[in-house]
Amino acid sequence: MFARIAGVGSYLPGPPLSNDDLKQRGVETNDEWIVSRTGIKSRHLADANCTSSDLALEASRKALVAAGIDASTLDLIIVATSTPDFIFPSTACLLQAKLGNHSAMAFDVQAVCSGFVYAMNIAEKFIRFGSHKKVLVVGAEVFSRILDWDDRSTCVLFGDGAGAVILEASENPGILASAAHADGAYHGILSVPGNVCGGKVIGDPFLRMDGQAVFKFAVRVLADVAQECCALAGILPTGIDWLIPHQANIRIIESTAKRVGIDMNKVIVTVDRHGNTSAASIPLALDAAVRDGRVQRGHKVLLEGVGGGFTWGAVLLEF
Ligand code: ACO
Questions:
Q1: Fewest CB within 10 A of the end CB: N or C in the chain?
Q2: Is 113 designated active site?
């Protein structure tokens, strides 16, 4: 029994905001700096009253339509997010209520930018075990909420959005191999080192990052896990039709593709127009490539992510 993608959907809030728009809003930056170091030209930012579950709902509705199923038939809902609506209940439960499903198991996965591949990895185990048959896997983020808009070295990098897939039990090939890892020793190079205690914010509630350390770590583990996943499936990286890496930075994506030996014309890139949407970035890119006709049924697609923790992982599937 395989876990097969039956439908994909995504949602981006509001109009795109260009690098010049950020400058107009008071960020001391310029288009040339951002584009040359990251490849980012624009991103979408959610309004103050829009939550991760709101974005997840829109993406999920599109994925359900694409799969041709009703939300009431889902038996598992997993939301990958680092920007949940509340401390609890989980964003998955809030999404479930909005979808009108009253019985599925529902929980969040917190693995930052690797969250979506972690969630796919988990969902596949439930399907292969035979206990669940229709699973909604979502990556949804309002990262703009945890950005320090006075820190130009981080605030220009991120955006908001959501992507969703429906995974179904199928005798036809779907997920062929998956791998996921973490090394908490690297927790300090990317974190939001704050919490709520006694009704007050303790520590620092904004995203902090050692950009160069993250860059080096990301390229190394993304290349390693791509090769690991291909080896598990018994195929060479050159046999992949599409690589869909986490969309953090075009230079990380290019360096990874080079190390793995995958040509850039087989790599889906959306970082230029979405920025880094953390757990949402991979399903957003997948949906874009499915809807524009690049990713087609039967294609071998490698999804891979890396994020705070540090966490990293990959999923190789036949679409
Ligand atoms: N606009 C203009 N100038 C800026 C900006 C900005 N937005 N941000 C920083 N600068 C300036 C700095 O102040 C510094 O100026 P100075 O030399 O006068 O002090 C100069 O640019 C160089 O700054 P560096 O930090 O050394 O620039 P670097 O070349 O390392 O690039 C970057 C920074 C883009 C963050 C890079 O380290 C990177 O891409 N790292 C990867 C991080 C990443 O993608 N993280 C995403 C989250 S993690 C994940 O998703 C896995």
A1: N
A2: yes
